[in-house]
Amino acid sequence: MVGKSNDFLIVSKDILPEAILKTAKAKELLVKGEAYTINDAVERVGLSRSAYYKYKDGVFPFYEASREKILTISLILENKAGILSHVLNFIASIKGNVLTINQGIPLQGIANVSISLETAGMDDTPENLLNGLGNISGVRKIEVIGQT
């Protein structure tokens, strides 16, 4: 079980121990219906059942931890006409509900923008939201700065 205060961290998969990564993969197989039992899932990923049970209540994909939440992201955008519009249109296309937008005055050809959005009604995961935003021409950097 997660600590009493339910503290969470966003951590890169690159630094996690293999057992935690395999636990996440086993849980994913179960959710997607690609494995019907815990035994089948842990066998497929090469994990012991004891390790699975040790970590299962504390390992969640990013999208699961932030679904139905408010997500605040910081973006660095090139100062060109239409880029912010493309960002907002993409968010709207997956039914993200924009709550606030704050944009600083562009300096040296870039603008800092922060957007808070509700993820409850989205057609896609927050992870895919971030990936999609990163594919928009003129978006230089995206960072999650808060979740509630």
UniProtKB/TrEMBL annotation:
SUPFAM superfamilies: ACT-like (SSF55021)
Domain ACT: 72-147
Gene3D superfamilies assigned to the protein according to its UniProt record, in alphabetical order: 3.30.70.260
InterPro entries (alphabetical): ACT-like_dom_sf, ACT_dom, UPF0735_ACT_dom-cont
Top-level taxon: Bacteria
Family: Belongs to the UPF0735 family.
NCBIfam families (alphabetical): PRK04435.1
Record HAMAP family: UPF0735 (MF_00707)
Protein name: UPF0735 ACT domain-containing protein Desaci_1833
